[in-house]
Amino acid sequence: MDAFAVPSPALFAGLLVGTVLALLGRAPERVPRPATSVAQAVIGVVIGVLAQSSTLSAVAQDWLPVLAVSLGTLVLSMAAGLLLGLQRGVSPLTGMLSLTAGGASGLVAISRELGGDERLVAVVQYLRVGLVTATMPVVATLVFGAGHSGAVAPAEAGAPWYPGTALLVVCCAVGIPLARLTRVPAGSLLGPLVVALALSLSGATFGATPPELIVAVAYAVIGWQAGVRFTRASLGTVARVLPLATALIFGIVGVCAALGLLLSRLTGVTPLEGYLATTPGGVYAVLATAISAGGNVTFVVAVQVLRVIIMLLIAPFLARLLSRFRRP
């Protein structure tokens, strides 16, 4: 998967292998709950450490338009998801989780716990990421006049594993019991995420990030969880939904681009920076494009990370509200 530049290759590898074995009748019925809880916690920490103190300072002056546009992007994508939920075999909750913009791995990780179909959520979420990533350089160049996208310098190799492992242990040891105590939905993800977010914003992580191998295993477990539940009937549902999902994704991309232009007018950033800041997904491709174009990288990434964090904090509560609303 990595060789074909697939986003979150370990997650897709787990999804593909789990699906094939499930269709052959050789997969277990489910992944043990402790394994999925730990995987969710790891992903929560990964997302939490994305936020830095520079994230807040970059948007502090223009916090109101940034917040309004971020919420607008979320409302738009969730509304498109409810439209997807009108399809036969797709619940409104599953549709909403499938098309909500940002934090694909986090939503896939918690979708089953929230009552959604994580198989469909995984496929549609990463279809969104793939389409956004594929179209972003073209739109940035042809529409907004971005320079040629060069390669982003790879992350520093050979970093010691123990600071990141210690960070994971602390975030999980504090975050999971805290989430259970407060009865937060999707607590295995949200508890460690909030602790990692607090530590990162206070500078207490000292630049530590979860080790890549542990993160890859966590992604694989989440993919495997979705894959082993596939049946021939569910595969047919996914195939039937994809045309509408694709159309809705392109619609979301277009409206988010318009919101980016609005953000540009309200904050004074360039139209390209506004577009990149509001693109519904593909944060690493956004980063690469912003760097190569010489844009305001800090602002772009700050808006992207802010949207992901807001989404993951409110999505479980919206899902719970939606499930209650649908009860007879």
UniProtKB/TrEMBL annotation:
Keywords assigned by UniProt, alphabetized: Membrane, Transmembrane, Transmembrane helix
Record flagged with keyword Flavoprotein: no
Species this protein is from: Pseudonocardia bannensis
Top-level taxon of the source organism: Bacteria
GO annotation, cellular component aspect: membrane
Biological process per Gene Ontology, one example term: regulation of gene expression
The protein's name in its UniProt record: AbrB family transcriptional regulator
Regions that span the bilayer: 6-25, 37-60, 66-86, 129-149, 161-181, 193-222, 242-263, 299-322
InterPro entries membership: AbrB_dup, AbrB_fam
